[in-house]
Amino acid sequence: MRHSLRSVLPVTIALALPLVSMACGGRVDIDVPDGGPIPTTTPTPTTSGTVPPPSTSTPPFPGEPPVPPPSPTTPPVPTPECNPADCALPNTEATTCRGGVCTPAVCTSGFADCDGNPSNGCELGLGGLFPDTDGDGFGDGTKPLMTCPVAGVDYVKNGDDCYDQNYYARPGQTGFFVPDRGDGSFDYDCDGQEQLRASATHDEVCICSDFGCSIDEGWIGPVPTCAATGTWGRAPGGFSCTAIPERRAQACR
Predict the structure, then answer these.
(1) Is residue 138 within 8 Å of residue 161, measured between CB atoms?
(2) Which residues, in sequence order, are CB contacts of 135 under 8 Å at separation 6+?
(3) How far, in Å, CA of 196 to CA of 222, rounded?
């Protein structure tokens, strides 16, 4: 029986196509002589008679990972609504909206918004704090805090310091000092007065007993003022009644 080339070629292609397709990774280009049938990849109709639509995704080559599906888009977060008329903040006369949050615009007199937290309004009561420059725990009563605190400055709740530039000048001081506190004054205990450490004078009275003699120590001559130098009569001890003179500076507080 004789067969023409045209009748044999489709059968040959149909038999060889699966083998060639496997060798070429599933992709085959076929040259067919003029007039021969062209192999097709048209989908086979289903049992219902309908043809499924072609896939829109490109299958990966052998060994390649599958193409991931597109990630869902996250919707933007809406900005909170804010109405200044509905805002009620402590110690606040007027409010405004910033970024959808009620924020103080005008504080009640005597208050300030200093902590950066709009929810508590104007939280700082002014006039109740005083700067403590010298760190002695007592503030300068002439400088009540009337604005937000300055970074690096300590503040205390009392303003009883009489000179806030000297750590030793403060209420309750019991010591005596020769140099003035820094402003020419010797009032170290903030009582408004300058107290001499020693005001007694030597009266040359000598009292002796079987165990020795004693004299009253004191200044020999005028009593020196604060930081001034004078002659101090010190008790000699033993049975002597002659004071030992010493030069001393008058300390005060």
Answers:
(1) yes
(2) 154, 167
(3) 13
216/236 Cα distance (integer angstroms): 11
173-192: string of b/e by CB count within 10 Å (b at 16+)? beebbeebbeeebbbbbbee
The residue assigned the tokens 């909206």 is 97
Q: What is the pLDDT of residue 237?
A: 84
The pLDDT of residue 106 is: 94
* Other beta carbons within 10 Å of 73: 6
Residues 153 and 133: beta-carbon distance below 8 Å? yes
Query: Would you call 201 helix, strand, or coil by DSSP?
Result: strand
**For the segment 128-181, what is each residue's pLDDT rounded down to a tens digit?**
999 999 999 999 999 999 999 999 999 999 999 999 999 999 999 999 999 999
Total-model pTM: 0.58
